[in-house]
Amino acid sequence: MFSARQIVAQASRRSFSASARQASKVTVLGAAGGIGQPLSLLLKLNPRVSQLALYDIRLAPGVAADIGHINTKSEVRGYEATPSALAEALKGSDIVLIPAGVPRKPGMTRDDLFNTNASIVRDLAKAAADHAPEANILIISNPVNSTVPITAEIFKSKGVYNPKRLFGVTTLDVVRASRFISQLRNTDPANENITVVGGHSGATIVPLLSQSGFNLSGDQLAEYVRRVQFGGDEVVQAKDGAGSATLSMAMAGARFAESLLKAAQGQKNVIEPTFVDSPLYKDAGCEYFASNVELGPNGVEKIHPVGKITEYEQKLLDVCLADLSKNIQKGVDWVKANP
Ligand code: NAI
Question: Which of 59, 145, 277, 283 could disulfide-link 32, Cβ–Cβ 3.0 to 4.6 Å?
């Protein structure tokens, strides 16, 4: 028989370990940017986050001081741009979101950002590999098709690569796909769940409308696909040189982080499309590919195949694979030349 005191002690140990599991440190690298600020705000509003670490090469302590006044429970800390502060920001982190880097201006493709963002992501990936090797790493910085392979190569070179923990954030493509179809069909976008596969830029973004029971055809289908593939350009043009999608991207990044936290905290059937190390099209030269992925406590739980698609969608996929394999190789080659 247990004494009353033992029972109380056991119960409080249980509740301690339960809350320990629920405790989640989330780090944002690039937290003072156009995406970083609203993303950090949304994370502060998420009760699943217990610690929020904000790092940037400028202004992170200011953003943290501001967000830290919001009356939710999580602790917020901003970090100066020093290697030791970066290490502190990363230590013990469960999720590291990386929106650091430059955004597009009108007329630029995501690949035009490569030269600047490749080295930013490489350096932050090195720090993450050293100080948070077991965290889920969420890459937002473009070109995602190349920055994810760059991050993987850095983790491999440090012997800590876990393919189940590295994610290219393609959630915005899915958010747009459901919003745009709802505008065409006058439905509630919250109920639209359009599968989008491939990568995250132009022709590598492949919406699979047929799988959601829609049968657009002709010009309407072509225009829909074009809008999903190049939706980011609408924002770049409308902002007229002041950047690319930040607010919708923040929402998409926060949604993806929330899904990972739900899965880590034991929720089942959490499925998000994301760009991961994937067996699906390795034969076509694509080590990484975005498809629906079931998330679990260890990150990637199950990668769903693309499934049944129409002839039209197959053509889109063929174009995607040709482009995507080049984008991936570009990242791998670059990091070999610039370790
Ligand atoms: P921004 O220029 O407003 O913010 C970038 C932030 O990164 C700045 O605060 C800057 O100081 C910081 N930064 C630069 N180098 C850094 C370093 N070494 N360490 C830490 N922080 C650093 O740009 P924005 O609009 O926030 O976009 C960020 C990135 O996200 C861009 O590459 C953009 O193309 C990408 N993006 C990705 C999307 C996606 O769907 N995955 C959608 C939209 C944008």
Answer: 59
